[in-house]
Give the backbone structure.
Amino acid sequence: MNRSIRCIFTAALAGAFAGTSAHAQRRPPQVAYGAASPNDPNNRIIPIPVVEACAMAQRLRVWLFTAPVGSTAWGVGAPGGGARIWALLPSCRQPDPDDPREPCPVGRVELAVLSGAGAVQAGEPQNLTSAPDSRRVQGFVVPTSIVHIRIRIMRQNDTERWSAAIDAPQLHNMPAPVGTPTANGFNFDLSQYPSR
């Protein structure tokens, strides 16, 4: 009987080791956004659809657009090809002790290269009007040589609020802004883009 118990125990132990080994071989590689070496086969970039990224950014009152063809407003007049993107941001207000809302919920947007060649040309947020608490807009030019980018929404203190990786060639799927072009820029229909 002792021999039978030992045989059963040994078989069970061998089965457990075999199962663990097989499970370890089936594990997917580590998911890494912006790894130091994007060509490393152990790291993957898992992008989300651009439309989904736009919807998520809207929850933070950041509206992402494809700039109209021919527009050079808000920093998208840089030479060279690529996607021209606008980010419409909420305003930054003076702190008010009677208003519990964050006075500047979004400092800026960043587009960081995850894979591919080249660099994103990014402008600083600019006020839409001369009012100190005006809504702000930022422009970007993303070269066609970039494969994946990470959209980052940053607080004013340079901490990240939200980020997502996307396929850069899909940037043209961002919506066009509602408004009217002007000689020097673009008038957004802000009634379509609430900021609070």
